[in-house]
Amino acid sequence: MRKYIIKRIAISVVLLFFVSMIIYIIMRSIPTSYVETQARMLSQMPGAKSYADWLAQLNTTYGMDKGILEGFMQWASNAIHGDFGDSWQFNVPVVEKFQSVIWDSFKLGSIAFILQIFIAIPLGILAARKQYSRSDYTITVLALLGISLPAFFFATILKLIFSAWLGWLPLYGKVGRYYELLSGFDQFFDIAIHFILPILTLTIVGVGGLMRYTRTNMLEVLNSDYIRTARAKGLSEKRVVNYHAFRNTLIPIVTILGGTLPGLFAGALITETLFQIPGIGYTGYLAMVSGDIPFTMFYMVFMAFLTLLGTLIADILYAVVDPRVRVS
Amino acid sequence: MKNSKKTTKKATNKSSDYISAKDARRIAKENRRITDEFEKIKNRKNVPESEYTTEMKNSNNLLEVENLHTYFFTDIGVVKSVSGVTFNVPKGKTVGIVGESGCGKSVTSLSIMQLVQRPQGQIVDGEIRFDFDKAIYDIVKIPTEKMQDIRGNEIAMIFQEPMTSLNPVFRIGLQINEVIELHNPEMSKEDVKSRTLEMIKMVGIPDVEKIYKMYPHELSGGMRQRIVIAMALSCDPKLIIADEPTTALDVTIQAQIMDLLRNLKDRINSSIMLITHDLGVIAEMADEVVVMYAGKVVEKGTAHEIFHNPSHPYTIGLMASRPGIGDKKSGKLFSIPGSVPNPVDMPNYCYFRDRCDRAIDACNGEYPPQIFLSDTHMVTCYRYLKDKGEQND
Fold first, then answer.
1. ipTM greater than 0.90
2. Mean pLDDT of the region B304-308
3. What is chain B's mean pLDDT, rounded?
4. Chain B residues with CB inside 8 Å of A225's CB?
5. Residue A310: which residues within 8 A CB-CB, separation 6 or more?
6. Domain boundaries defined on chain B
């Protein structure tokens, strides 16, 4: 197993190198250019140098005068030493900006993720146990709604009900107006109350897919021969479902849960924008449309790293739950 | 002209599997109504014991199945998998049940275990009486919690697919321990383990300690089938239902498994209900034979009677389709022409009539009655109905 993991890590490093190269090439090739935008702006100032002069100067300053491959090599060698440079758009070191926005997104993502698991899996199992019953149809229709309707729809509906009509929860923002005046616990409470609606939105949107996946897998497991054997042993229905069937349902679920690890850090662009929470999804979007290569590179490569880590974790977990795939 | 058109339309309607949306809705609604009623009865709490206590017809019998009807309420209509099956399993004897695929053998055995897939599958009529020494219960009416004490303990089942019958994520030891622990809560952990090891050894697997820690995928098909047998026998059941225990295995392993079952039967003196379509196995193992066709018993008797005097045309056909060693008469294996009638839409005459090569005029009448050729030999075929006076119900 150790040998297998080491091999996988080695492959991941090679993959990461090529993935970041592709991202860099794309970033350099897209029409949005930070340098060109800046040069145009500066050249329009009264008494400024011409656009061509500014462009040449800025290209040298931002290191864009080198070729794409050369530029990538420069970026990569800096990155290996832990230097990801300064963000062009935000004028602070990339890592600093990242740290200041990631945690809000992570909190939103992880809480929604935990809620999704605790809602979707039991509901999926219930729907499978009572296939074609009224509760099954109800759960399936709700799941379908969750999958088909977009996040902005739910966000708007929730805002309408809980903020506009009932007035229980704030409409948007991360903190309230008097945040600075509050004491420690009240500050926490203030943030918490602002996070309820975004988390609810993310949960509703994500729960459907996982629930349907659980239901399908549980149905398949419940119809298998070894479940009949378990029943023939005289085990109670509870033990058959919660122990024998659940352990087998876990196998495919674990693989997709491993794959959602990058999702926790990816942020939710639409939800964050709708609720005006300055998370990584929104920040990453701003960086990308302004052509901020250092920040986008760091963000995308970090995502690639997490994706690779997620698949590795999923594979290891797979071996934990399914003895058939254990590598000896 | 008009008339002929009408008949062709009717014929196509009957032969095709197509059902209109309206019909499908009607069937689904009807099915739900019927199954809900059965489920309601099944899901009652605290059923009084008197309701499912019954009497044996013959005290030598361990199991008496009488007029069993197990139906499946599917979207295309009611499938009468088992309709009116009656047979007995005497104490300490082996009863073989033969018949082609889909004739209701497995559903009969699952009914005895109360393992028919609910809510679609339901036992709609009949009695399954089982002698539990202290009392005699009707398995059809017994509540599920009570049945859980019986499954694996008094009645154990060996399934036909050894490759998929064991849970892939649990170790062999755990899976056998589980059933022993469940039915013997007073046993200590060490006792349970030593019993498990003893069972694994009993089914002829060497190196028990190693097998105890293995997962099912690490064993071969024959080994897995032995584990399934060990699991079934670990609580010394009174009745072992072996549902095609050797179908998935090659011939040498088959012989070993059969030897094993026979030895075990002698050792713990239980009865075996052996379900198979292998007549060779039946000839070797069974004391009594039940021949099933399309959900009904067409002939039953002692093994001697069935093999030396097969009477129902279906049994005769079955015997003729056995491959014989050194059989040089023709290169081809005999097969019964035609196929089983559609289980959703059973005819009201003898189900075998359309495939029968000896059909007589009487066969156009309703389903033939039971005719006793001897005290033990029963056949349902008009050819043996000499005159009405001899008919014995």
1. no
2. 90
3. 84
4. 159, 161, 164-165
5. A258, A259, A260, A261, A262
6. 293-390
